[in-house]
Design brief:
The complex is a heterodimer. Chain A is an alpha/beta fold. Chain A has helices at about 20-25, 45, 85-95, 105-115, 125-135, 165-175, 180-185, 185-200, and strands at about 5-15, 50, 55, 70-75, 100, 120, 140-145, 150-155, 160. Chain A has eight helices and nine strands. In chain A, strands 6-5-4-1-7-8-9 form a seven-stranded mixed β-sheet. A two-stranded antiparallel sheet of chain A has the order 2-3. Chain B has helices spanning about 5-10, 35-45, 80-95, 110-115, 145-155, 180-190, 205-210, 215-220, 240-245, 255-265, 315-325, 345-350, 355-365, 380-390, 390-400, 450-455; strands at about 15, 20-25, 30-35, 55-60, 95-100, 125, 140-145, 160, 165-170, 200-205, 230-235, 275-280, 290, 300, 340-345, 375, 400-405, 425, 440-445. Classes of the chains: A alpha/beta, B alpha/beta. Bound molecules: iron/sulfur cluster (SF4). Iron/sulfur cluster (SF4) binds near residues 63, 108, 347, 411 and 430 of chain B.
Chain lengths: ~220, ~475
């Protein structure tokens, strides 16, 4: 995975609360079993006056010349709530977004960001509002984000510190592939599983083998 | 200090403590569907990593498949056929069982899993689908994940996660006539917002939760994610045991006795500590319906569309204004009487047998209002068969409903079948987001009984006024 250390980019304000992943990437824009080819569908229902012809709605923030291609979103609370679709993060990434700053995030979305090299920064509501006011007042203004120092800096303003879980920070800084990391613990998982299956044997399941035929059984009345 | 049920299940599954307070948690079951599971399976295959325990996984074809009676791999969704076929192939390659289109057990993953006894108290269950929390209704610890974590769970049978904070929501008292689990959860989100549960595992407790059927508890937990909770759970009790017993994948014989004793011990200790508590008087809950585009835009059916000016928070006010524009509603308009064009009963929220019975009780001897399109989509083919065995299909068909095969159907729009543009729909689903059920479609979330009563009236209606 791509590493995240520092970012200097245009920030766009998108301060609606509860922006859900259906809005970030509408279901019908997920046309193939693929993690790519999604950026055209990003925010499709807001970005286009006519979704079918892709005729843009000039009023949508990312269509305004100074915010076009922004790499940072300053967003409202509970950003990325709703459907678990990781396509929301893949679409943002493909569009060029590398950081989302919001008072809070949908939990699955936040985890998906970290797994795909996008930094989710949760800040207190008043700080997010102040940042939004700043990027609204000076369209096209660039923010500097430093994950090592855990700071966000706007021109002419004091740096804002942010917190992030150590594990998430490390994954982003190192560009870690979590599956690879966990697979190194294979032996530990094996040992755990053996003890676990002895302690609670009814939890074993083999739908590809011994238990397959059970799926044909009738339901209790 | 006592432990909550979530803490107990957590410690049973703890493989390792990781840096930063995160835990490596053993995963008992991985569920997949053709919408998001397809990409997880494909991506895993591309990296050459094997699935660790294919027998602990199951694929359900539910999201993209049509629900027409004569369905096939061809679906109304453009490109949908490729999702279905690629999922089938990838599952076969990985040796994972598929409940395919023509399987008598096919259905919506979160309906099928408890129904087959795959979900059991104390299990950890994950699925790349946000409504996995539904399965907390049987006392499982079940949560939605992204596709990358889906790959992680398939490859390692574990997930690295941080322990959520604990919240208990207590519903004490007796629900009024015509009030259901759906109204309880809409009421909670309406009062405490769509982000009120962020960061929490929510335990549902209290006499009104104990009085619910297991199917009602599944409905309650289904919308925990709409409350932004990490998951929801109802501690297992004798009712849970009675529900699981005898299901196709339930433990049997001596294992059943061991399991049953273990499950009853999973309840939270009396001195368990919660980071947050919410108490709700169940008797005060009315049939509840949404007016806007977030599940938190919920009020009693006897209420009116609120005035955005009444919201103190400027962002909430802006959200309410945008919602009223989208929904084509004016402040102060009573919800009862609002004309509808369509009615939908189904989904992982309210597509189980008890939901169909609730709706049929309202519809028996009545007809859908002229001009209203009404559809019922059973949550699984087993639900469909059970409903037909007791004649519910006749009730729906006589009332003027379409009677479908099982799937997610018009719960969500992915380019295929949908309600007509800008139509007003009363729906038993869980998301009233913009365009969720089709371009411009205006969705009002409600219980199956309220949907049925409204379909008959041709307008949003109070089921209590029908005397059902
Ligand atoms: S029924 Fe709707 S909410 Fe449930 S899994 Fe299917 S699409 Fe998702």
């Amino acid at each position: 995975m791509e590493k995240f250390t520092r970012l200097d980019g245009v920030a766009a304000p998108l301060m609606r609360a509860n922006v859900d992943t259906d809005a970030i990437i509408p279901s019908r824009e997920m046309k193939q079993v693929s993690k790519t080819g999604l950026s055209g569908g990003l925010f499709a229902n807001w970005r286009y006056a006519d979704v079918a012809t892709r005729q843009e709605d000039p009023g949508f923030v990312l269509n305004r010349p100074s915010y076009r291609g922004a790499s940072i979103l300053v967003a409202g609370s509970n950003f990325g709530c709703g459907s678990s679709r990781e396509h929301a993060v893949w679409a943002l990434h493909e569009y060029g977004v590398r950081c989302v700053i919001a008072p809070s995030f949908g939990a699955i979305f936040q985890g998906n960001c970290v797994r795909n090299g996008i930094l989710p920064v949760a800040l207190p509501e008043d700080q997010v509002q102040a940042l939004a006011a700043l990027v609204e007042a000076a369209p096209g203004v660039r923010l500097s984000i430093d994950l090592e120092a855990q700071t966000i800096t706007a021109p002419g303003a004091a740096a804002i510190s942010f917190g992030i879980a150590d594990g998430d920070r490390e994954m982003l800084l190192e560009g870690l592939d979590m599956i690879g990391v966990t697979l190194k613990r294979q032996a530990q998982i094996d040992v755990f599983e053996t003890g676990y299956r002895q302690a609670r044997p009814w939890r074993r399941l083999d739908l590809s083998g011994a238990d397959a035929a059970k799926l044909e059984r009738a339901l209790p009345l | 200090m006592g432990k909550t049920i979530v803490e107990k299940i957590w410690s049973q599954h703890l493989v390792a403590d990781l840096a930063d307070g995160a835990s490596l948690i053993y995963v008992d079951r991985v569920l997949l569907h053709e919408r998001t599971g397809s990409i997880a399976l494909k991506s895993l295959a591309e990296t050459g990593r094997p699935v660790r325990s294919p027998g602990q996984a199951l694929v359900c074809m539910d999201h993209i498949v049509d629900t027409f009676v004569n369905r096939s791999d061809d679906t109304a969704m453009p490109g949908g056929k490729a999702f279905i076929q690629q999922t089938r192939e990838a599952a076969a390659q990985a040796n994972i069982r598929v409940l395919d289109i023509d399987d008598p057990s096919q259905g919506i993953v979160h309906v099928v899993s408890p129904e087959l006894g795959l979900a059991q108290p104390g299990l950890t269950i994950v699925c790349p689908d946000s409504h996995t929390c539904t399965q907390g209704g049987v006392g499982a610890l079940a949560w939605g994940i992204g596709s990358t974590d889906g790959e992680h769970a398939l490859a390692t049978q574990t997930l690295a996660i941080r322990r959520p904070r604990m919240m208990r929501v207590t519903f004490d008292g007796v629900l009024g006539a015509g009030v259901t689990a759906k109204d309880m959860i809409l009421h909670l989100i309406g009062e405490h917002t769509a982000s009120g549960g962020a960061g929490y595992a929510v335990e549902f407790a209290g006499s009104a939760v104990q009085a619910l059927s297991i199917e009602g508890r599944l409905t309650l937990c289904n919308m925990a994610v709409e409350f932004a909770a990490w998951t929801g759970i109802c501690p297992p009790d004798e009712k849970t045991l009675a529900y699981v017993r005898g299901r196709p994948l339930a433990p049997e014989g001596a294992l059943w006795d061991q399991a049953a004793a273990d499950w009853l011990a999973l309840r939270s200790d009396p001195d368990a500590v919660y980071d947050k508590e919410i108490a709700i008087d169940a008797a005060q809950i009315a049939p509840t319906i949404t007016w806007g585009t977030s599940p938190q835009h919920a009020v009693a059916i006897t209420g009116a569309v609120p005035d955005p000016a009444a919201f103190a928070d400027p962002r909430q006010r802006a959200g309410a204004e945008a919602a009223l524009t989208y929904m084509d509603l004016e402040p102060g308009v009573p919800l009862i009487g609002l004309p509808i064009q369509s009615a939908f009963i189904g989904s992982c929220t309210n597509g189980r047998l008890s939901d169909l019975r609730d709706a049929a009780a309202v519809l028996r001897g009545r007809r859908v209002a002229p001009g209203v399109r009404a559809i019922v989509v059973p949550g699984s083919m087993r639900v469909r068969a059970a409903a037909e065995a007791e004649g519910l299909d006749k009730v729906f068909l006589d009332a003027g409903f379409e009677w479908r095969k099982s799937g997610c159907s018009m719960c969500f729009f992915s380019g295929g079948e949908h309600f007509a543009e800008k139509e007003r729909v009363v729906t038993s689903t869980n998301r009233n987001f913009e365009n969720r059920q089709g371009p411009g479609v205006r969705s009002h979330l409600a219980s199956p009984a309220t949907v049925a009563a409204s379909a008959v009236a041709g307008r949003l209606a109070d089921v209590r006024a029908l005397g059902a």
